[in-house]
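DEPOSITED CHAIN:
***
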Amino acid sequence: MLFALSLLILFGLIAAPGAASAAASDAALLWWTRVLPSLLPYLVASSLLLGSGVLSRLKGRASMLLLPLGLLGGYPVCARIAGTLYQKGALRLSDAQNVAALCNLPNPVFLVSVVSAGLFRDQRTALPLLLGIYGTSLLSLIPLSRVRISAVRASESPALSDALPKAIADSVRAILNIGGCLVFASVLGALLGATGVFRLFGAGETVVRAVLLGLFEMTSGVSGLAALPFSLPLRLALTAFLLQFGGVSVLFQSTSALPLPLPRYCLIRLIGAMLAAIAVYLFTPLFCPDTVVPTMASGTEMLQNSFDLLTVALSCTFCLLFVFVFTPRSRHQKRTR
């Protein structure tokens, strides 16, 4: 299956070099101007935190502290923390996989500066996004409360002169990995668009294109959603869905830190994404009342909205099937420590 997928990608790069090159250029520019400045400081800070010996103090049911760590660091920081705890023997593999699926969250700086101020050009939209995404993520505390962290042998905290260069080097490698995933996922989305499959959805072509590209790489999809001529609650709800789910790019970044069972991981992320989308849709009129028109939609508009939501659901299903079918399963033993 991997061989066939590789041939399809190579054929697509040869058949549509212009679309692939343009998508790669846009993704690289987005990574350089938006993602790197907002995420690199958080990666350095999280690396310093991991190197300070804080993991040796996490014992028993302190796993609930991983949720705020994932929130502050943003994805894939929590997957890296879970992978580190698993390698040190502090977490069983199944628990580490659940932690990575539940606690991978967008960091607030990226959400406020890139999404709200940069793409939607309205900082008020940050409030419903923050409340919807982080509020529904609090439900993760229920399963996290059952995860126990074994004692990790304490190590001496290194000096700042030694820890800071190492943290910067580790973070630069991580941010380069993120950039590579972003570019590759964007190229995959562009090659899919070059096949003309989006035209099959007729009037819903624009929303399907934005959502599908977002399921490959969320930042590109959110950029397309921000420009759609839909109501603000619907655009923010779809944005929250993409941000919470993370897309194939975040999946690649997470699997580089920890072997993940794709069906279970994607199912957990999908449930969280739907809850976040519903919450953001309900919160938006409270914080952005002047952008919501309080009139009853006509029958044609209601039919069009229903069709758009149906095409979104079909596109999400298509992308999930694509991930399950074409992504090779990780070959790790089922037995955990």
Q: What stands out?
A: The chain has 15 helices and no strands. Residues 65 and 103 are 10 Å apart (CA to CA).
